[in-house]
ROK family transcriptional regulator (Alkalicoccobacillus gibsonii), 413 residues
Amino acid sequence: MSQLFSKLSREQMKTFNQKVILKLLKEHGVLSKAQLSKISQLTVPAVTGIIQTLLQSKLIEEIGPTKTSRGRFPATYKIRSNGIHILAVTIATTFAKAAIINLDGEVKEICQTTLPKHVTSEQALSYVEKLVQQCNPDQYQIIGMGAGLHGIVDTEKGVLVFPPQLSWRSFPILEELEKRFSYPILIDNDCNTLVLAERWFGQAKEGETTVTLNVDYGIGAGIYMNNNLFRGSHYAAGQIGHTIVAEDGLECPCGNRGCLEMHASEPSIIRDVKSKIESGSASIATDLAENVQSIQIQHVYEAALLNDELAISMLSRAGALSGKAASSLVNILNPDRLILSGGILKSNHTFFEPFQKAIQTNSIQASTQSLEIVKSDLGTHADVIGAACLWIDQLFDSSIALESIIHISNLDD
């Protein structure tokens, strides 16, 4: 895979122009050659040549003439959403997913399974293999696999360096995936893939700098800065879950104490609710789960929606802590928008409002005067959409030649 992307096309300008036309069609929907020429400032013959290549690649399709006020009705073109597809997988702490995603970010097939506690890397990959088979990828024109992974991912070496909630360390994940699958494979941290999903299909289509904060089993941030994914010098950017928010707090798998993840993630919320109930506090969550020990995060969310005081208190506290930690990112990066994502969205406004307030309170005015703080609207499959966006990003917004990515000559008619 590294060799594929280490060799740039000799005709770099040709590649650049192809991406310009492709991106314009994605942004505008339907355009004619004349319209594409006018917007891109390329000549009509140049646009015509690019259109032919994109038609051959199955990336676009001709949809017939459009009426004009005079003269001939010109042919128009749009992205061919289902011409090619991407196989997307995610490996999280408690589950794995596989999906087939089209160029519009639509989920065509989806399979998911729960992972056992203390799952080994070999076990997890076996689950992924089965999920991929269940998605019937042979029925689709797959250009590659994108994998979103929990933890710090060295995308250059293909190594899962440190997944805090798993026992794996420095695991050669890319090599192991390539042993099992024949597709070209791109990998990244799951929060990085989530911010790409927002950039292409969600709340971050506009603006140059976006931060996503994903709160569920763990807490992490994805940073899209100056129109590029920011990974940091050692691929550890965005590890906001390991910001210290409680002095002498609980010990975290990372080795520190008082990390945000230990005091505001879904498991920590469940733990705190159970502890309060066992100490004498009342909560509807007990009735919803039938007993204290069976309380899961969905019971806490449901209790909060039923105005349960304890559930609201614990979720609000987690929101305030997360917002205070996120304010540091806001002050440092000065993003256009901050997008909250993850299972925590099921709490409705109970987490979001104190989260939003804490950011406004703890950030300087210059950083928040035009900041948009919003919830993700990508839904429960944002993770696999994000994994697919590793390839979407290559297709529409990279310097890699299209021929290198989709192997045009090998596409079936």
Remarks:
- The chain is about 40% helix and 20% strand.
- The two ends are 25 Å apart (CA to CA).
- The mean pLDDT is 92.
